[in-house]
Amino acid sequence: MSDTYHHGNLREALIEAGIRIINESGENALSLRKVAAACEVSHAAPYAHFKDKNELIEAIKMSVTEQLMCELEDAIKSAANSESAIVGMGKKYVSFFLKNPDYFKFLFRRQNITAHLKTDEKTDDDYPPFVLLKKTYLKYLKENRIEKNKKEQEVELLKIWASAHGLAAIACMSGVIPSFDWDEMLEGDDLLR
Amino acid sequence: MSDTYHHGNLREALIEAGIRIINESGENALSLRKVAAACEVSHAAPYAHFKDKNELIEAIKMSVTEQLMCELEDAIKSAANSESAIVGMGKKYVSFFLKNPDYFKFLFRRQNITAHLKTDEKTDDDYPPFVLLKKTYLKYLKENRIEKNKKEQEVELLKIWASAHGLAAIACMSGVIPSFDWDEMLEGDDLLR
DNA sequence: TATAATAACTTTACATTGTCAAGATTGGAG
DNA sequence: CTCCAATCTTGACAATGTAAAGTTATTATA
To answer: What is the pLDDT along chain B (193 residues), one digit of tens a residue?
Structure first.
């Protein structure tokens, strides 16, 4: 009857609507029915594209992660060498989540514990930003002819990673910290090295 | 009629039941009604002790944080000096959440934990583990007669904190980097210094 | 091109959940 | 003992996730 029976691009529209809702009202306001309503489809329409709510959430996560990856790649491009690329990535990582605190809480929260039990052979390759950091780090070692064994590499990589991720976590989870000037803090090179 | 109309200690029982449910089935399985049922009271009974679900969650958070604080204080006690106390705290912090990954996701899911990072500020709202670290850090500076201005102190404290918190985050968050041997990693002194 | 198959969507239905309101029960202060 | 406030129950309601069955449009196929 109506030519709008089929949305045409509902899957993407649902993801975008989901992101909008998270940004406007936080993750706890994200419901399948609201997302569906935002796309002007019935409340069960999403089930044609996602198995359940968790699958929609995973898709949104992927979309947000892609955004982050773009910024990280920009940071690498505008760095003189791979050492400053690492620092630049760290800053970008923190500032990205500082700009979108809801994204952090949303991304790093396991929705369904049982959903992850199947794929227990997860590797670090699962999280693209970490893969990018690892690549940049290895390039840095090579560029500066630094010899380290696997273990030492792992530890150092982990330290760099924890530093950036930890800062982002603190910045986003601690609520508003008016007394602390994050922008200024990120100006210096000291913090993430 | 029945002598069990009044539970007697329902508030504490609800908190304990909540913790049990989180440990057994994850946070997403935590519902007011299930917690009430676990205590064998009606579904609306919790409202005599908590304004809403969020208040129960906050109470559970406080309880878990107290557990963590006990372990952190133990770590300080068994350290030779305040420098090794800082390292010990970091290890304890990570291993605590490594032992109880659900606690991490649960504690840092919402915004209410506020860490005021200004060194000279002290509020009741402070996140207790951070306050303890700050105290230990200042003692360390004094003990070793290290002169640093406020800004330098803030940055260093933040780095230590981010390191520990970031490691815990990575260790607990789903599938980010599960391929590391965390126990062995925490054996060395290198990681958190 | 006609028709069958399939994907996309709607409607209906139901269980779970958070929360409120009104009432029942009980311990304790006076 | 009496009354009050705290505690708990019952019943209700709206929001939500999700399953089932039916409807419509698109696509494939003959």
So the answer is: 445 767 779 999 999 999 999 999 988 899 999 999 999 999 999 999 999 999 999 999 999 999 999 999 999 999 999 999 999 999 999 999 988 888 888 888 654 333 333 444 434 356 788 888 889 999 999 999 999 998 888 888 888 888 898 888 887 764 444 456 777 777 877 777 6
Domain residue ranges in chain A:
10-51, 61-187
CATH topology of domain B61-187: Tetracycline Repressor; domain 2 (1.10.357)
* CA neighbor of A10 nearest in space, from A51, A52, A48: A48
Taking the alpha carbons at both ends of chain B, their separation in whole angstroms is 62
CATH topology of domain B10-51: Arc Repressor Mutant, subunit A (1.10.10)
Secondary structure (3-state) at B146? coil
> What residues in B contact A177, CB-CB < 8 Å?
114-117
Helix/strand/coil for B126: strand
Is A127 near chain B, with CB under 8 Å?
A: yes
| B49 Cβ within 7 A of any nucleic strand D atom | yes
Stated pTM of the model: 0.84
